[in-house]
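worker-3 :: picked histidine kinase
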Amino acid sequence: MVGALRTLDGMTSTGEEQGRAGPPLWWERRRDVVWDVGIGAVSALECAWEGVGFAREAGVPVVLGVLFGFVVGATLVLRRRWPVAVVLVSIAVTPAVMGFLLGVVGLYTLAACEVPRRVTATVASMSLVATLVVMYVRTDDEAGVTQTLLISLSVFVAVALTVPPVLLGMYVGARRRLMESLHERADSLERELSLLAERAEERAEWARTEERTRIAREMHDVVAHRVSLMVVHAAALQAVAVKDPVKAARNAALVGDMGRQALTELREMLGVLRAPAPAVPKPVAVAVPAPVVEEGPSLAELEVLVGQSRAAGMVVRLDVRGERPGYAAEVEQTAYRVVQEALTNCHKHAPGAEVVVRLAHREGEVAMQVENGPCDGDAGGAGLPSGGNGLVGMRERVLGLGGVFVAGPTESGGFRVSAVLPCASVQA
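worker-3 :: tokens ->
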């Protein structure tokens, strides 16, 4: 009548559960087996004792009555598997006045299991009516009992044997379902917290990777530009050391100044790397802050940057248009680094070429362009190596702020680097 049911312990009685290792058949725990077998044995003994009276009333051998009562009472062992069937058996033997424990425990189990409520109400009503009728009929045979007292007594006994076990079973079942719901919520919360912890760790790792990449770009820009200028000045120093000692001394002083500047900037960045990371509390929902932009170069230092290239012998023209507003720190630093790296590439790949640096402060954006003319073949290079990361780093910087970056050769045989940074990063 009823298929796989949720038992008192919340398990589902299916073939998979029966095939599990552990307690036999449909029981989940071994103590459930001991409890059901024990209470079934008590019920069997009770019904066997009551079967003696039933056999005498029915006019059958006492042995058959005892055997019948024993089998009926032993069906209580099946209460977790087939609770409806157990209650129906107790209803069937109610006229024989046997199965008190069978009926009470069966109704309790039925109400506590995951049986549809309409089924529980129907079976419980049948048990109530059967007990009421049997009590009324059996008490009516006794003399001296009024009809009112007979009906009242029958109703009281029927309600006392039916309603309390049903109410208790419903309470236990509701409490069990509440505990299962709380356990499920706790498990779900634990899974969510674990997932948040993994995501927080991923975000932290991403932030660390971004910071390492940013510092690597900064070190590349500092080392490449400063060292390139030092190499150019060293080559000029070697060329004029004998002919023009005054110019040689001036170039040597420039080389020293640039070396000290490079060391200062490298020391600042290495100090950031050596600084201990701030302690992060253990809770999993950790918000990873955006990388902080440290104090760096700005567009106000662009004239000095161009002057250093001029001092190295490069012909550089600076063309600034528009009034410079107050930009965000990352915009100032990115614009400066783009021009710096472009000038470094001119020192490496276009010695002797004329270079034009253009900077335009427009409404909502700032644009920069570094263009060199054809390389003078007779100028000779300083033998500067190229790592191939200059243009890549510039592109990453500009695209990271939502800007546009374009680089490529010109029709005249030179090379042009252009970048535009949007106003989204401009401070009011």
